[in-house]
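Problem statement: downstream parser choked on a complex file, so we are re-checking the raw output for the copper (II) ion run. The parser issue turned out to be on our end (a line-ending mismatch), but while we're here, posting the original submission so the record is complete.
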Amino acid sequence: MKVRLFAVKAAIVSGAVLLLAVAGLAGEIKGKVSVQGIKSAENIAVYVDTIPDKKLDAPTTKPVVDQTKMTFVPHVTVVQVGTTVEFLNSDPVGHNVYWPSISGNKKLAHNMGTWPKGDKKSFQFNDAGTAGLLCNVHPEMNGYIVVSPTPYFALTDKSGNYEIKNVPPGKYTLKTWSEDGKVTTQAVEVAAGAVTADLTVKK
Ligand SMILES: [Cu+2]
């Protein structure tokens, strides 16, 4: 009896150790984005580009982009390819949502229509790239949906800092997207723990 109890305890302990080991494998990519010729290092998307032969879990979150006080909030939203985004109108006027292309591909242009306060419409983004959001009622309004091919992405804060958590070990290509700057790519190798990748985005 005592032996059997010991065996059960040993099994529980080794299971816990295994779980810890698996959790410990996940790495992290973090760093700071500097800019040259661009006014701000904020709101720059940093993401892991397509990983060949890697099966990724389908996204489960449904981020909301609000149209409030005549602006798209947030200004930039980064999502994994396949994500459904909900577009809400919180203003007392009708707003429209359309994008003329996704990363320049006009075949992926889409007009969602116009709807009143309190209503929302959703759209599933199945193509990687950037959709520049516009409202045909208010030409001054604009925002962005950056569709990342992987779930490993982040958006820089005011100082240009970013942090991508839970990245499995491997060799990847980091990519940036910014409103005013060129795309920057950088090779990065992730192991357990955090790896630092500082990037410079140029006009
Ligand atoms: Cu509008």
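For whoever reads this later: Residues 83 and 124 are 5 Å apart (CA to CA).
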